[in-house]
Amino acid sequence: MTDRTRRAFLGSAAAATAGLAVAPLATPPAQAAAPATGKQAPGFYRFKLGNLEVAVVSDGARPRPIYDGLVRNASKDQVLAAAEAAFMPKGNFISHFNPIVVNTGTKLVLIDTGFGPRTGPTVGLLPSTLAAAGIDPKTIDIVLISHMHGDHILGLKTLDGALAFPNAEIKVPAKDWAFWMNDDNVAKASDDFTKSTFEFNRAVFHGIESNVTRYEWEEEIASGITAIDTNGHTPGHTSFVLASGSDRILVQGDVTNVPALFLRNPHWHIIFDHDPEQAARTRRRFLDMASVEKALVAGYHFPFPGLGYVEKDGPGYRLVPALWVPWL
Q: What ranges in 86-231 are assigned the alpha helix state H?
């Protein structure tokens, strides 16, 4: 730039600045602060699996206290340290609840139903999440239950006791039904969690037995959805393989609870496991399979949207979250 050009440029800039200085300043209108909403938006996440359209529809999440005996074969301090290493709230772990809707092209299948309407305020959100996702409960053809614990079955009924999915066939694992609906087993229940599970099952399924079908492992329950044996957490605990073309996902239910605790420490026995030793063997077998196959895994209690890949990591495993994508 020549001296003459530089002087011309500086002169024009000064003139412009002077013009701005004398121009009257507009006063912006007063604006009130927007009120805080105080809640999250309903959480759902869709993705394609071959010809299947899958939606994770959150029932919510909540902190749960870490107490003595939560893990039968680890101390409270060990569990607290693992939760702290994962940056969870002090003294708690966070549990998510992730039902799944699968559109097979001919059927709309809901896998597990969440806590239902009596729990709240941060769980029992499935109805609002389905509404936000544009899914009418009346259009659900099959409700597929992985196992008969309260956080998977209580959403089958509304607050007034009506069927939440009135046109759906309810499918439950045959082995779980045989155990939880057996009166002799009720009398043998020794701990509060097991006793409450028997109570929940009787309350939920009373009067709707004709809507319930029992399925077996290795059975194709709907097009592209096959049940597999992952017992231990309950006698009939079931996972599912969703497959379409060359694409496949393992829907693991509660094989593993919170990954920061139970993928890292697959030998731990959480108090909710019916048969802790069998649950640990099943967990190892399932996680080894998922790791070797590099299979996409959906976890009911994984951080929303609950999708990721399992990798071996020392004596345990780690979860590699699947990438979120904004397209189908």
A: 126-132, 150-153, 174-180, 183-188, 192-205
How far apart CA 172 and CA 153 sit, in angstroms, is 10
159-206 tens-digit pLDDT: 999 999 999 999 999 999 999 999 999 999 999 999 999 999 999 999
Distance in angstroms between the alpha carbons of the first and the last residue of the chain: 53
State how far the alpha carbon of 159 is from the alpha carbons of 172, 212, 327, in Å. 22, 20, 36
Q: Three-class SS of residue 183? A: helix
Alpha carbons 88 and 284: distance in angstroms, whole number:
25
Distance CA 118, CA 75 (A): 32
Pairing between β-strand 92-97 and β-strand 60-65 as defined by DSSP bridges: antiparallel
Tell me: the pLDDT tens digits for 214-246? 999 999 999 999 999 999 999 999 999 999 999
Q: How far apart are CA 112 and CA 126, in angstroms?
A: 10
What's the whole-model pTM score?
0.89
CB 60 within 8 A of CB 114: yes
Instruction: Please report where in the chains the tokens 């909710």 appear, as a residue.
Output: 272
Cis omega before residue 305 (within 30°)? yes
42-321: CATH topology: Metallo-beta-lactamase; Chain A (3.60.15)
Of the candidates 157, 144, 167, the residue with the CA atom closest to the CA atom of residue 298 = 144
Q: What is the CA radius of gyration of the chain?
A: 26
Taking the C-alpha atoms of residue 212 and residue 173, their distance in angstroms, rounded to an integer, is 10
Q: CA 312 from chain center: how many Å? A: 22
What is the tens place of the pLDDT at every residue in 13-24?
A: 444 434 444 445
